[in-house]
Every structure is written in C-alpha cells, then in structure tokens.
Amino acid sequence: MIRMQPDQPVAAVILAAGASSRFGSPKPVARVGSRTMLGVVADVATAAGLTPVLVVAPSGLQAPETVTVVPNDAPELGMSRSLQLGLAAVPPDRDAAVVLLADQPSVDVVLLQRLLGSRGAAAVVATGADGRIGPPVLLERDAFDLADETSGDVGLRDWLRTHRGLVTAVEVAEPIPDVDEPSDLDHITEPCEGCGARFLPQVIDEAHPYIGASPACWAAFGELLAREFERPTYGRIHRHTVDVYAVQHPGTDERRQRQSVALHLVALCHWLEHGMETARLNAITGRLASSGRSWPWLEPPSVYPMTVLDVLEARDGDEHVELVRRWGESTWRAWAAHQPRVREWAREAAE
After folding, report:
1. Whole-model pTM?
2. Where are the domains of the chain?
3. Strands 167-171, 124-129: parallel, antiparallel or unpaired by DSSP?
4. How confident is residue 78, by pLDDT bands cut at 50, 70 and 90?
5. Measured between alpha carbons, how far is 53 from 103 in angstroms, rounded to an integer?
C-alpha cells in the first residue's frame, strides 16, 4: 500500500517541449476553439484540482498566465528530458504529480479525478484503453525516479508496457488521441452548426432559445461579451458584435429565428452601408421587433470567412474594434444573395 495524504494537493506536469515536426508549427499554441491546446490542458488540470500546474516548455513558448513554466532549453533531447525537468520542479510538499501531454486537448476533468481517486494500491496510476496504458499518468513521489531511467523521446512508454503489474490502470472507452498533424484536430473537434468554427465538444445545461450555435461556440461568444462588458475600449462596438454573431447563427425556420436574422441584418446594413449610430439602430430594430410583422426565412450562407474565434484574437480595444468591423463586413458579403431585400427593409425602417 502506498502511503499518501489524501487531502494534500497533487501537482500537474504538462509536457510541451516536443518538436512538432509533423504539425509544422508549435503544437501547444495551436488553437482549439477559443484556446490553445496547452491552454485547454492547463484549464482541465486546474479544474481537476491539480496545483501547481507546471508546464515544461522551450524558451519563448507562450503559456497561460495561470501556469508555472519550467524551461527546457534542450528539447531536442526528447520527452524524457522534459519529464525529468518537470518532476524535479514539483514542490517538495506535493507527494504526487499527474503527467499530461500538451497535444492531448481532449483529456477531461473526470478522467483526472478518476486517476486521483485510484491512488493507494500502486505508485503509478495510468490511463488504460484497448489493452494499452499511457498518459495521463499519476506518479507518487516514490516513483519520480523512474524518469531518470528514461531517455530520448520514449518517456514512460516502455516502462509502462513492461511493468503493467506495478500499475493501477484506469480504464476508458478509447485512448486519449494525440494531435500530431493539423488534420488530427478535425477528429477531436466538431463544427458549430451556425458559423462552422470548430470546437472541442462541450455540454451545457441551457442553450439560447433561438440562436443556432453549438454549446462551445456559445461559450466562446460569452467570453467575447465578457471582454466587452469589462473593458470600455472593447465595449464601444458591442451592438455590432451582437448583430454579427446573431446573423451567423440563424437557427431554424421559426418565427423568432426569422425575426432575429431580419432585424440584425437590417442593423448590419445600416451600420456598414450608412454609418448609422447605435442609438438610432436601437430605435429602429426595437420598432421592428414590436411591429408584429411576419418575416420570411432567408437561407443562410454555407460558409463564413471569419468567426467569433478570429475576433477573440484581439490583443487590445482598437484591434477588437477593427476585427469586429472586418467580421461584420465579411459576414454582410456572405449574405449577398439577400442584400437587395434587406436593403429594402432597411430603407422602409429608416423612413
């Protein structure tokens, strides 16, 4: 039986110093939805209660502010070197660490909690699927010196394969997939039915009653709105942010959805083609919403050049305003087939 303190926090060690040769660019900072792959894994580790979250990364790699970076200035020595550095950096008051890979963004909180709950019988707790065991792997401090026996890019793989009897396996339905090439992202993400942006699958308790967005895309929009509510330099364009997002997510052919698309398209038309100010836009769309008019269904475009994910790339208020405008212009162009009708609605509403 392994001696442990169940109330003592467990550290996370995220390995993020791989060469990314097949991916073509540093994998940890590749976007998955609104976050980087590294950001997703770090957030999952934090949500599972792991602390501190240590990230072994080469110098210059952008890491989330919530993590502690452990520099690896010789990443060419392989995963084993990163593993050794990460475990050596675990604070002495932590008696265990969970080792995660930055290129496995589909790892989830439930799995990490199951690893933590399986402590006690062995010094190593690993993820099992299809007869294989691998990361994420929990190591008790007594097993940290296993890293010293590894070399190159193998990590703990060979040890786990040859010492299965010394490992507690937490079984899952399928192995946690690695992202080795850009196309691998398509296998672990799903498109939003409205704008087409790809996100990791997400479940939420409630969806918007008529905005046709995936749960993850709706959450990304919430992140964008939070910026606008919290920062005045972002919030000055809030009205147009809502118009563009609503137009990209028309939902189904029902009354509220038809009205939403029509009114937000009218607002886009007046903003982009006539420079109408927000106060007047609000008055016009408010009047149209209360008119009781029956609006037709407009078949939406099949693709959009920009989505909410592009706008989330803004680094300051000015860039945010510019990106929202470009987002609006590209979305308005995507609706070109319906522009004559919308322009007529806009003209009538302004009279």
Report:
1. 0.78
2. 11-171, 191-350
3. parallel
4. confident
5. 16
